[in-house]
Amino acid sequence: MRLRRFALLIACFAATACAPAAVEPTAQSTPAAAPSTGNPEVTLAFAGDVHFTARTLGVLDDVRKLDPVARMMADADLAMVNLETAVTTRGTAERKTFLFRSPPGAFAALKSAGIDVVTVANNHALDYGRVGLADTLADAATARMPVVGAGSSAAEAFDHHLFSIRGTRIAVLGMSQVSELWQRWRATDDDAGIAMARDTTRAVDAVRRAAAAADVVVVYLHWGTEYAKCPSKEQRTLARRLADAGADIIVGTHAHVLQGDGWLDDAYVHYGMSNFVWWRNDAATNDTEVLRITVRSGRVSAAAVVPAYIDRDSGVPSAVGGSAASRILGVRSRAVACSGLSPSAP
Predict the structure, then answer these.
(1) Residue 161's closest CA among 131, 133, 178, 140?
(2) Cα–Cα distance between 219 and 225 in angstroms, integer?
(3) How far, in Å, CA of 251 to CA of 34, rounded?
(4) What is the DSSP track for 52-110?
(5) Is the sign of the CA dihedral 196, 136, 213, 299 positive or negative?
(6) What count of other Cβ atoms lies within 10 Å of the Cβ of residue 64?
(7) What is the pTM of this model?
(8) CA-CA distances (angstroms) from residue 49 to 56, 218, 317?
């Protein structure tokens, strides 16, 4: 995977088609001290919701269709998305409006595009019950893809995955705050399911445990109100509790539109990264971005966004420049204005 990622990065720099892509600085902390030999810079990349169904189903037959994603993730040390579907051909459909499932191979496709860890804590992971969830986790295991946010018990679902990158320990967790079916889908001491952030005691304890084990704690959340560009009171309250518990980076999806990002005291928060590899063509939700965060000496030192647009035919996003980037960055700026977050660290 790393060789493929490096090759794609070189190809991107060499190709004039990559030149227009814009990188927009978001907020930057007080410059950290120069990295020591044991703790140099680490780059993290985050993007939003992913499906392999409808217009994106064909990606699994030809993963080269994900090359635009791979180019945006190519030089990140750690890249993460939310897979918002069950990966199964079995199970019983839940009684709900939208049901999503992908055939086996979804995690292998994401791995080929340079994704290193996936959260499945969302309101579609159990669309086909716990049988479907078991198949989803099995597909991830086959692809050797780390997954967070679900498991055979609450202990497993709320557990973090620990990465060590050039001496920096990064703990990654996934959780959902979406209310739909949350009590029935939540992982318990005895039942498989999702790490539900509405179980705030478990959520806060999970972050505290991760903070004790790592230099940097990332929490990827599925939360908020669909199509709302400003974070809800629930989002703000949970972000505060998790930041106080030790989360350094909090990122999220579910709104299907871009929400704002910035600093909440010492934590960097991006409330909503919109869709990413998306099943339905909707001009209002095709705007997206990749959040790139630089960690230096165990703290977030800088953040930037790469504006992107989801292709109306393939459902796969590509980085954009020029007027398209300016328009998307304008959308993002308006979302930042109502986020309640600070443009700089304290």
Answers:
(1) 140
(2) 18
(3) 26
(4) -SGGGGGGGG-GGGGHHHHHHHTT-SEEEEEE-SEE-S-S---SSS---EE-TTHHHHH
(5) negative
(6) 9
(7) 0.90
(8) 12, 17, 11
Give burial (CB, 10 Å; 0-12/13-18/19+) of 177.
Answer: buried
Measured distance CA(44)–CA(339) in Å, rounded: 22
Dihedral over alpha carbons 75, 76, 78, 81 (to 10 degrees): -100
Q: What is the phi-psi region of residue 246: left when phi exceeds 0, alpha when psi lies from -120 to 50, beta otherwise? A: left
pLDDT tens track, the chain, 346 positions: 443 443 333 333 333 333 334 566 654 433 333 334 455 899 999 999 999 999 999 999 999 999 999 999 989 999 999 999 999 999 999 999 999 999 999 999 999 999 999 999 999 999 999 999 999 999 999 999 999 999 999 999 999 999 999 999 999 999 999 999 999 999 999 999 999 999 999 999 999 999 999 999 999 999 999 999 999 999 999 999 999 999 999 999 999 999 999 999 999 999 999 999 999 988 778 999 999 999 999 999 999 999 999 999 999 999 999 999 999 999 999 999 999 999 998 8
As to burial, measured by CB atoms within 10 angstroms (0-12 exposed, 13-18 middle, 19+ buried), residue 104 is: middle
Q: What count of other Cβ atoms lies within 10 Å of the Cβ of residue 35?
A: 18
Can you give the three-state secondary structure of 269-299, one letter per residue? EECCECEEECCCCCHHHCEEEEEEEEEECCE
Q: Please name every residue paired with 214 in a beta bridge, in sequence order, or none if there are none.
A: none
Tokens 């919701």 identify what position? 49
Query: How far apart, in Å, are the Cα atoms of 188 and each of 49, 235, 242?
Result: 25, 23, 20
Strands of the 261-264 sheet, one edge to the other? 161-165, 168-176, 216-222, 249-253, 267-270, 261-264
Q: From 3.60.21.10, 3.50.50.60, 2.60.40.10, 3.30.70.20, which CATH number describes the 2-16+40-337 domain?
A: 3.60.21.10
Query: Which secondary-structure segment (H or E) carries 215?
Result: none
Domain limits of the chain? 2-16+40-337
For residue 228, which of 285, 305, 303, 181 has the smallest C-alpha distance? 285
- Other beta carbons within 10 angstroms of residue 346's beta carbon come to 9
